Design the sequence.
């Protein structure tokens, strides 16, 4: 199988410009800038069926085409490298192993959308990523792949590396823009979408790291080649981050549409110690959890959606039969309660309420009404919030309760507290 | 212009109008916490969600622009359910300490709960502890973080209206807390407005806190007498238990919306300028040190006036009218001292030091009716000259309306006046430096005790309404003059302020075509003075 994004991973000095150039590095950018019009670049990316690999799966070329070219304001490209979704650690490898692939993708994307400035927003905890990307940017400036009139083409491009400050919500694209602008990371009301009013009020494209790293190979080898690698409407390969109860956790580059079973058992080495699989989160903690009977699902955006989950960020978290699902739900709920930005009321108050409820259940301090109320509370958050975080709380925590209800029921405290027992009348 | 239907009612509104604005125009109530018409939209509370036909999800009415042919439902089962839901979330960490909360009775959590909540509580958990409860964040406002629903109205107010940026929301998730920035205090000229826009009991007024339950309050429309801006206000007074606060009637003033004058706001100077209504009042007519009846008081004035009138020595009369008075008071002053007693020296402008002002609502001229006085009173002699004449004994009667001459001219001048004029009359609502030197003190009513009009610095004539009866024996200024004129045998007869105003409109051309009904509660600008 042909590796694309991970093709340089593991090579000595893979992060250096020299290494990158040895493998036709920056030739795709040269090709785009000298032989193609921006519209042709966009068209090529559209035909490749490349989709947003941060989690939403929006067709990349289409997103680029939303940038209003008649708008006299500057246009920006923002790379979302906040990678905070639990179970996800792929962008980190691109930053560290092949930052020039990202930079070349940035050049091509900027050219396609008419932008001369790109920001790379990197998760604050990713110290090594920040260092490697900044070093790569410096190298690229020196070699005139960035800066004024790059590669003798007359095209200018500046790249700024910006560290995040530790909030998960800044991975939400409009919260990221707020953060970049120096404000508290609160998601914006939409519309307007960033393509119209984005960074500093200007048209902006926001793409995930992996998505942009896929762009140079598409330009080099053509949309058709790329589209064929994946499955219908999901072009190319994906980086799957496998963690949890598997023998070989790690990042695996596999074609879109590979089954979950194949990823877990053939590539990640299966479940250790002969135990059985109990549950899998297929796309980062926000994705509804799957049960063993769903393992044959194809890992692409559309197939996972069809079974009520989502491909999300490609973070596969495997849980074996020793896992307490109430505990797992509590961990997820705690994460959401901790990371809710607090801007809108259903999510701010609801995420904490859900966590406290599940925590009580886990510790055996909950009573029947607590479990009875839980699905309703969880449901009331989703669909009523400013951003998709609220939906994630609902879908994620809700899926544990609906699929493993008996485990929750088993935790209910049997003691009757007199003051709360409505049917017990004290005479 | 887009035409849309809300709950079966059609309306055409300009493009860019939001659903909540269109619904407000139709009088269809959509609940709101974070939305305020004068502030940028934040969309965080989520209680204004409505159903829009052909949209799968409910939309927030405060942010969603109308579209042609749009069909909106504000009371479908889905909408009513989500209101309940949002209320429930807002109360998860709210203390529900209504019995000890000053906002109770005018709290939007209470109101909407009664209207849309009414569910059995599912909240059995420990609530998140916030840091500051009953915490002073400045000279006028108290903060209670656990009652705050983080709607950010105050934050947006301080960011966009006063641009003083005191407020922020700190931390995140359900630990978010509203606070002032470290080292900052909420201390600007317009701090008190945050209490009005706070929909819950998070920001309360230090001055009003625990003074009176709001359900004891009556509201009377009025105009702030604190400066020439004439901000529209509501006088809120205790209609049933004034004995709880030493018989003080007025408990607080609130801004009253008038987009052409003060929008939703008033300054703190104006807001807290009400104690004089119930304190330090002149309650009875008083001659030197003796309390006298109104009849005796009128006789005292007429005894001096009659010979001056009869002997055509009206130039021995000096009158200092005031721009604190209403147009109606001033018109009767004009009739009496310019017509009946033609020849009297009359002015209304004393040389006051300009007060504090800013580029928003506060004006340096601290009189509410300078523009009206200028139209009504034809000044015959400069105020300083009148005072000078009084000091020199060149006049026999000095009639002063409300001015504190001690503060303006010094006690020595007053002493001389007191010694050298036959009768020094002070007519006013409150005791000030003039009183102890005046021979005769006549109690007049304050603005909250009478009907009338003020003309503000925009030349806008605005009405005031009487909230309650004048204190003790006080009377409206024009009424006192009516009594004197009758005793003098040249009666100026008016039934009430409205009748005087009819005469003003008939006499003074910039007021022509105005009536109380037309002025209503939003005011009316004087007719073009040049035409």
Sequence:
């Amino acid at each position: 199988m042909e590796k694309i994004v991970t093709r340089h991973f593991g090579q000595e000095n893979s992060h250096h410009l020299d290494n990158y150039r040895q493998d036709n590095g920056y030739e795709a950018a040269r090709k785009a800038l000298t032989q193609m019009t921006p519209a042709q670049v966009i068209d090529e990316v559209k035909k490749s069926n490349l989709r947003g690999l941060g989690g939403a799966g929006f067709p990349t070329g289409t997103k680029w085409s939303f940038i209003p070219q008649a708008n006299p304001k500057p246009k920006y490209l923002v790379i979302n490298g906040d990678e905070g979704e639990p179970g996800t650690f792929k962008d980190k490898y691109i930053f560290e192993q092949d930052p020039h692939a990202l930079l070349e993708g940035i050049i091509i994307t900027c050219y396609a959308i008419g932008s001369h400035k790109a920001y790379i927003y990197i998760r604050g905890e990713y110290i090594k990523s920040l260092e490697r990307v900044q070093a790569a940017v410096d190298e690229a400036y020196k070699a005139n792949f960035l800066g004024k009139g790059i590669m003798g083409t007359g095209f200018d491009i500046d790249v700024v590396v910006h560290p995040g400050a530790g909030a998960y919500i800044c991975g939400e694209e409009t919260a990221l823009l707020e953060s970049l602008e120096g404000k508290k990371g609160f998601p914006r009301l939409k519309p307007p979408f960033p393509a119209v009013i984005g960074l500093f009020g200007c048209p902006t494209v926001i793409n995930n790291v992996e998505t942009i790293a896929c762009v140079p190979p598409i330009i080099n080898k053509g949309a058709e080649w790329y589209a064929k690698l994946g499955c219908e409407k999901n072009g190319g390969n994906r980086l799957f981050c496998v963690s949890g109860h598997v023998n070989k956790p790690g990042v695996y580059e596999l074609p879109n549409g590979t089954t979950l079973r194949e990823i877990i058992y053939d590539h990640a080495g299966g479940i250790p110690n002969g135990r059985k699989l109990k549950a899998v989160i297929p796309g980062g903690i926000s994705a509804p959890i799957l049960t063993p009977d769903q393992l044959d699902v194809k890992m692409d955006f559309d197939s996972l959606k069809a079974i009520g989950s989502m491909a999300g960020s490609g973070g596969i978290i495997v849980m074996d039969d020793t896992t307490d699902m109430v505990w797992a739900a509590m961990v997820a709920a705690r994460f959401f309660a901790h990371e809710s930005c607090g801007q809108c009321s259903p999510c701010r108050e609801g995420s904490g309420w859900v966590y406290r409820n599940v925590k009580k259940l886990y510790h055996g301090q909950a009573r029947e009404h607590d479990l009875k109320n839980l699905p309703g509370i969880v449901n009331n958050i989703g669909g009523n919030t400013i951003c998709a975080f609220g939906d994630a709380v609902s879908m994620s925590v809700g899926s544990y309760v609906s699929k493993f209800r008996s485990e929750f029921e088993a935790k209910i405290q049997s003691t009757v507290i007199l003051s709360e027992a409505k049917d017990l009348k004290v005479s | 212009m887009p035409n849309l239907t809300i709950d079966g009612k059609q309306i055409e509104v300009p493009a860019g109008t939001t659903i909540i604005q269109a619904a407000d125009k139709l009088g269809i109530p959509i609940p709101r916490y974070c939305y305020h018409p004068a502030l940028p939209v934040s969309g965080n509370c989520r209680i204004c969600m409505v159903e829009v036909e052909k949209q799968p999800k409910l939309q927030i009415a405060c942010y969603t622009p109308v579209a042609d042919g749009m069909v909106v439902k504000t009371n479908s089962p889905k909408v009513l359910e989500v209101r309940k839901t949002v209320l429930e979330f807002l109360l998860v960490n709210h203390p529900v300490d209504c019995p000890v909360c000053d906002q109770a009775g005018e709290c939007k959590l209470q109101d909407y709960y009664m209207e849309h909540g009414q569910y059995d509580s599912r909240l059995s958990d420990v609530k998140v502890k916030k840091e500051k409860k009953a915490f002073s964040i400045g000279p006028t406002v108290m903060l209670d973080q656990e009652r705050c629903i983080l709607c950010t109205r105050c934050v947006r107010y301080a960011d966009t209206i006063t641009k003083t940026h005191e407020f922020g929301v700190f931390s995140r998730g359900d630990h978010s807390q509203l606070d002032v920035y470290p080292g900052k205090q909420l201390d600007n000229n317009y701090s008190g407005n945050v209490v009005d826009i706070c929909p819950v009991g998070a920001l309360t007024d230090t001055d009003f806190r625990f003074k009176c339950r709001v359900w004891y309050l009556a509201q009377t429309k009025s105009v702030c007498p604190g400066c020439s801006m004439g901000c529209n206000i509501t006088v809120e007074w205790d209609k049933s238990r004034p004995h709880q606060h030493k018989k003080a009637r007025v408990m607080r003033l609130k801004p009253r919306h008038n987009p052409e004058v003060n929008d939703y706001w008033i300054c703190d100077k104006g807001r807290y300028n009400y104690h004089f209504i119930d304190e330090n009042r002149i309650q009875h007519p008083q001659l030197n040190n003796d309390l006298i009846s109104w009849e005796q008081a009128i006789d005292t004035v007429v005894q001096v006036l009659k010979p001056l009138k009869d002997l055509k020595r009206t130039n021995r009369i000096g009158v200092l009218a005031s721009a604190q008075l209403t147009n109606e008071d001033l018109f009767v002053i004009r009739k009496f001292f310019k017509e009946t007693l033609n020849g009297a020296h009359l002015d209304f402008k004393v040389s006051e030091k300009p007060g504090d002002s800013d580029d928003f609502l506060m004006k340096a001229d601290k009189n509410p009716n300078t523009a009206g006085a200028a139209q009504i009173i034809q000044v015959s002699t400069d105020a300083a000259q009148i005072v000078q004449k009084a000091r020199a004994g060149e006049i026999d009667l000095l009639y002063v309306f409300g001015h504190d001459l001690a503060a303006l001219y010094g006690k020595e001048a007053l002493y001389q006046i007191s010694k050298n004029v036959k009768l020094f009359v002070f007519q006013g609502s409150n005791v000030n430096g003039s009183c102890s030197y005046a021979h005769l003190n006549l109690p007049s009513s304050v603005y909250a005790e009478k009907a009338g009009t003020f003309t503000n610095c925009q030349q806008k004539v605005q009405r005031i309404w009487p909230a309650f009866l004048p204190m003790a024996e006080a009377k409206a200024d024009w009424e006192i003059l009516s009594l004197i004129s009758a005793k003098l045998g040249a009666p100026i007869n008016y039934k009430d302020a409205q009748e005087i105003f009819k005469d003003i409109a008939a006499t003074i051309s910039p007021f022509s075509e105005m009536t109380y009904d037309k002025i209503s509660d939003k005011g009316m600008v004087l007719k073009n003075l040049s035409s």
